[in-house]
Design a protein that fits this description.
The structure is a homodimer. Chain A is of the alpha/beta class. Chain A contains 15 helices and nine strands. Helix content of chain A is 48%, strand content 12%. In chain A, α4 runs parallel beside α7, α8 packs across α9 and α8 crosses α10.
């Protein structure tokens, strides 16, 4: 197997950095759109055959060094009893958001095998199709990110409901976050047991909290999820979008093997700040740079690789790939990492 | 006159830090909503009597040390010929966004006195009503923020149109940004000449660009606007939301008198990083903390004031006040600054 990703997670010497793209199984791929045209998003997520097919598409098309299972972070709250609605053009939302200290006893503690078997089966099927060609990455949302979705009901501009809950009902919020931390950890552990060689936690709304609030409501629960997940033995990547100020604390307090760097943070600064920590780094090409002409992409990849260095480094975007970038530009990004990184 | 703000901008010794709130003339005030119920937003902005009335409301209600003129950053692009539409619940948008290298000759270079006289008159009237009680703050949007609005057509989640323009048509973008930098500078200068004692530039979408892109497309044009505005002799505050990484560069490269700190950045870290620079600091109370009980607000104000210190500091929020916070909590914030800061 191409084990570049696993070796980079362990900070071993590698011939070149591994490369994959967050949200690589997505709408920028014509073969993804072809399947999406015939199926609803949630149907694709919950049907292992479809999810596995889409999971392996970017390996074929781009030659990336990992396949991330096609799924969604909101399947966990859904399994806890929150009814999820996907409407085209609006994005996912919960039919009944958690508001005003809604009784948490209503929420179930899901058993991943019984309640989320479809994602575990999607991982198994992806592995079969790939025949150990590249590792499969499992993932989940971080407790704070899931909690804010559950309270807001969906995406939000200012997250006023979620923030008001933290300020007005901190004990209720802590109880919710603790339930989520356990659930996230269990889901990640189950994904590793189903065959995922690496798992990533997305704290997509980390940047919505000020540093002191993130230390109170974000980091401790993220750390708990990582601790549970890590018992399964696979490397854990933590990606906290918009929390560049927290890199050192993410490395020290969560015990993650890899810290994802977003595109807001400068590569050289991230490397310098995490130099003494026992972690690998992943990131952080600005997704909008894939709009640039190919020679510009190549030149910026070179700059990024120089800043990160080749040891303990996974080349990736600094956030999910945008749905309207040309496939050839995504391919140019991957090729440039392989060409430059192999020198 | 209460000249605490002016003295803090000049980093003079003051008995206590001045305090005001970004977006303080806004929906959280019942007396604002009473006027807004009878008038459209744009009507209020362009009618000096209404704008002045709303401008002074927070001085009366909260006892803040400055009045910021009630206006909108998009009046400049509108005066350049972009038709602005305000729809309730949607926010402002331009009827015809600038796309695909739209010819920039179509845009006018507005004369502030002739084309934006309403904001200048609102400043004059506010000064008359306040009778020199507190200074009046003028403002404008930064070139990059205005350009991204003009290209997107309105608010945006990922700013894909604006970013694609930067990547695919950088020369066109530079030409647009340069036109805007001149216009922003001229508008701020005219506001000072009309009586504004301080001006602030809001780079509300600074955080939408990665550091290297902000250095290319944001900072140089922001600096040009500051240079032009500063010729009028009043202190200039620069507030670049989401660009906490850039504090030192904002201080050194723009020549601003005051650097606004957003709530993503820790107060102590901002103070430390700007310690050697010749600038005052403004900020940075998390607006969502105004949802918390009053004793929590008071305690966090104390922490903030200790971190910033009293010299060269203006107490403020770290972003605009949220529309649904209780007025008494806004008042508690102001009172706490006065009480703690006066000790």
């Amino acid at each position: 197997m191409n084990d570049l990703l696993l070796r980079a997670c362990r900070r071993e010497v590698v011939p070149r950095p591994p490369v994959w793209l967050m949200r690589q199984a997505g709408r920028y791929l014509p073969e993804y759109r072809a399947i999406r045209a015939r199926h609803q998003f949630l149907e694709m997520v919950t049907t292992p055959e479809l999810a596995a097919e889409v999971t392996v598409q970017p390996v074929r098309r781009l030659g990336v060094d990992a396949a991330i299972v096609f799924s969604d972070i909101l399947i966990l709250p859904q399994a806890m009893g929150m009814e999820l609605v996907f409407e085209d053009g609006v994005g996912p939302r919960f039919r009944e958001p958690l508001r005003d200290e809604a009784p948490l006893e209503r929420l179930r503690d899901p058993d991943p095998v019984r309640d989320l078997g479809f994602v575990l089966e999607a991982i198994q099927r992806s592995r079969e199709i790939l025949a150990h060609e590249v590792p499969v990455v499992g993932f989940a949302g971080a407790p704070w990110t899931l909690a804010s979705y559950m309270i807001e009901g969906g995406g939000s501009k200012q997250f006023t409901h979620a923030k008001r809950a933290l300020m007005q009902s901190p004990e209720w919020a802590h109880a919710l976050l603790d339930r989520l931390a356990t659930g996230v950890g269990a889901l990640l552990k189950a994904q590793v047991e189903a065959g995922a060689e690496v798992v990533q936690i997305f704290d997509s709304w980390a940047g919505v909290l000020s540093p002191s609030d993130y230390r109170t409501f974000g980091l401790p629960y993220l750390a708990k999820s990582v601790r549970i997940a890590a018992t399964a033995g696979a490397p854990v990547i933590v990606f906290a979008l918009g929390a560049g100020w927290a890199l050192e604390e993410l490395a020290r307090d969560t015990g993650a093997d890899v810290i994802g760097i977003d595109w807001h943070t400068e590569a050289a600064s991230a490397r310098r700040r995490l130099d003494g920590e026992n972690v690998a780094l992943q990131g952080n090409f600005d997704p909008s740079w894939l709009y640039a002409p190919v020679p510009v992409i190549e030149s910026r990849v070179r700059t990024m690789l120089e800043a990160f260095g080749s040891r303990g480094y996974i080349a990736n975007l600094g956030h999910g790939i945008l749905p309207d970038v040309p496939v050839e530009h995504a391919r140019a990004f991957v090729d440039a990492v392989k060409a430059v990184g192999g020198n």
